[in-house]
Amino acid sequence: MPVTSQTPAQRKPRPGGRSARVRAAVLHAAFDELGEKGYDGFNMEAVARRSGVHKTTVYRRWPTREALVMDALDSRSDRHSPISVTGSLRADLLAFGQDVFTKLSSPHGKAMLKSLVAAVDQSPEILEKVQGFWRERLDAGAALVSKAIDRGELQADTNVDLLIEGLLAPIYLRVLLPGGSVTRAFLEQLIELLLGGVRQRAASSESASEATRQRSLARRPRRSPGALPRATA
Question: What end-to-end distance do the CA atoms of the chain give, in Å?
Fold first, then answer.
């Protein structure tokens, strides 16, 4: 009989083994519960019944519903989704906006978004998790803008976060509230509006800098033609 230095409690679960299957079943059931009943109606016992996993096992791994919801959110995070880089900021932002809308507007994505809107007011832990997801989404879009700045499409002092928030906020609003759609034409108009505003601000800033320079030159004392420099002591 082979001897091992690890006790049964110390042995790690094998990847893809029973532990992984149990976790996947519970997280899948948790998403289904959130989608059907929202955060207010989310119930650990219901998750256990739906997943086929005994409730004592569920509670042992996730002592609270907040812990289970946060683990479920983390497992479905799209932080590692590839970001399209075409060499054109307009095209990059269009692809980014379409990708975000596709994920949010799926039956699962829309249900989760509505559930989280309610959950953040009730759970500081989930609020922190959602803020982390939002930061990751802003960073993904910011990477596209930073590349555009490197290419010279935008000025270095562009407010990157504000630009990406300006793109994402209307998408989230139209997913949450009925009556508006997110079409390619809508995204193209939105991007044109945002980039036009950024460039107008840059032009205004350059004009203000030039005006300041001209005023500074005008205030300098002028020497008369042929005048000798004033002697210094």
Answer: 101
